[in-house]
Specification:
Serine Threonine Protein Phosphatase 5, Tetratricopeptide repeat, 496 residues, 0% strand, mainly alpha
Length: 496
């Protein structure tokens, strides 16, 4: 029996090594991009410390790219494997470097790992101040990454994957000169690169301080290189993809699906399929979700992340199906059950009021984190009430956590679109992020609900001003002043 197991284990290892040494590049890959990276295989090699073979494969991808720009996906996809390594495997990077310190792949790979650690340290917040501990920890990891990048580039100056990491680091640490210099250096060696341009473009999004107009300008500046690399025209997809990610972030999954669909009309990039699949999952449209995950896996074979997301979707599909059946065939309640439910609702309402009162007292005492816990309890008990969402959003704003505040304010709008106090706060968050279309939509909704509110016109005027629409801004300020809103009158007198 043991011999049979040993033979089976040996056969598995042998087959994996066959794939390593004799890759079949055409499986599931469109010929135009020549993709042939199997991420699960690379992960297997790393975890089993087959470093010599790993160096060989990574150098092979880079060498192929140096000779043919259409091979660039192989390099980026291969090194992307090391973005998914858990912290327990950090010692393997050190061992790899100790054994092969004269090679560049282990340094570039560990830099990718450190960049992921930096993003995780920063967390999901879209704005992190420099004095916060999250920012300090992010900087520490990025410093480690930059050290490894320097060592890798000393051994091979042509590594776009390293320059792309520096572009990311420069963007997230507000070192614009570092970002621009890395981008310029990369194009010296690969002037027709698509992935390098895509990485730079992704740092120009509104949430990173850019705008869609700035992104469009950059895309237009790249147009002259399309004759040399037709794929550069796919850059336009990134604007739709960023909008899709934003809509997913705020829970507007139907809109997210539309944006990712538009992105896919420009580019069949595997992450756009996977991200659209995630949005479909939130809509419980598992048929389309699984179809998109399959497309993503065709373009990025055996990608561990996509396999995991697909597995979760399958589990979600099963649970959703079981829940629907339970609701369809569940027991009918008699009158006694209805009375018990009424008593339960009264009890829940009492508990909710207690937590609400505690939350308000804590908020008034500026104990916002404790207040958030109380308002969260209210939401758990009565999720259909808008007030606890609004109060919790205010607390999040006081803590400068605009990401969480935005989600709660949007929930307030869903539950009670006539609650006017929400709109001014939404406008502020949107405008600060450069999302002027969303800010205008919020002001227009506010004005439609309360057309004699001078503050609403004043806010819209400020949005127009930030957009550069000075005539519209002045007209709104004049209207706000006529409605008696004094800050608008002061503004209007100054600019006349």
């Amino acid at each position: 029996m043991n011999r049979t197991k040993n033979r089976f284990s040996f056969s598995i290892v042998f087959l994996v090594l066959v794939f390593i040494l004799f890759p079949i590049s055409s499986w599931g890959q469109p010929a135009s991009y020549h993709r042939k990276v199997d991420k699960s295989t690379l992960l297997f090699i790393f975890q089993h410390q087959l470093f010599k073979s790993l160096n060989s494969k990574l150098e092979e991808y880079q060498s192929a790219y140096d000779q043919d720009y259409t091979e660039e996906d192989n390099v980026f996809d291969a090194f992307d494997v090391f973005s998914k390594i858990d912290t327990a495997s950090e010692s393997l990077f050190h061992k790899w470097i100790n054994e092969y310190s004269e090679f560049y792949p282990p340094y570039a790979a560990r830099a990718k790992y450190y960049c992921t650690c930096a993003r995780e340290a920063r967390g999901s917040k879209r704005v992190v101040d420099k004095d916060q501990k999250e920012y300090k920890e992010m900087e520490r990891y990025y410093a480690l990454a930059l050290n490894d990048i320097t060592n890798a580039l000393k051994k091979n100056i042509r590594l776009d994957v390293c320059y792309a990491m520096v572009v990311e680091i420069g963007s997230l640490t507000a070192h614009e000169e570092l970002k621009k210099r890395a981008f310029t250096n990369a194009l010296k060696y690969h002037p027709y690169a698509y992935r390098m341009r895509l990485k730079y473009l992704q740092t120009l999004t509104p949430r990173l301080g850019g705008s869609y107009d700035i992104m469009e300008t950059f895309i237009d500046s790249c147009a002259r290189f399309i004759a040399f690399n037709p794929r550069i025209k796919e850059l336009s997809a990134s604007i739709y993809a960023d909008k899709g990610n934003y809509f997913s972030y705020v829970g507007k999954y139907d809109d997210a699906v539309k944006m990712f669909t538009d992105a896919l009309n420009y580019s069949q990039y595997h992450s756009y399929y996977a991200d659209r699949a995630d949005a479909y999952v939130q809509l419980h449209d598992y048929v389309h979700a699984l179809n998109d995950y399959d497309h993503a896996l065709e373009l990025s074979p055996n990608d561990p992340e996509y396999l995991n997301r697909k597995a979760k979707a399958i589990a979600g599909q099963i649970n959703f199906s079981n829940t629907r059946k339970a609701n369809q065939y569940g027991p009918r309640y008699d009158r006694q059950n209805e009375k018990n439910q009424d008593r339960s609702l009264i009890s829940d309402k009492t508990q909710a009021n207690d937590h609400q009162e505690k939350g308000m007292n804590l908020a008034n005492a500026e104990k916002y984190e404790e207040a958030i816990k109380e308002f969260s309890e209210v939401i758990r008990i009565v999720p259909y009430e808008f007030a606890p969402y609004f109060n919790r959003a205010i607390c999040y704003s006081r803590l400068r956590n605009d990401d969480a505040a935005l989600q709660d304010f949007l929930r307030v709008v869903e539950l009670n679109p006539d609650y006017l106090d929400t709109y001014s706060r939404l406008i502020t968050i949107y405008a600060n992020r450069g999302l002027y279309d969303d800010a205008l939509n919020s002001t227009n909704k506010w004005i439609s609900l309360d057309p004699k509110n001078g503050e609403a016109f004043f806010n819209r005027g400020k949005v127009f001003e930030r957009m550069g629409s000075n005539v519209d801004a002045l007209n709104d300020m004049k209207q706000a002043c006529a409605l008696g809103y004094q800050p608008a009158c002061r503004y209007y007198k100054q600019v006349q």
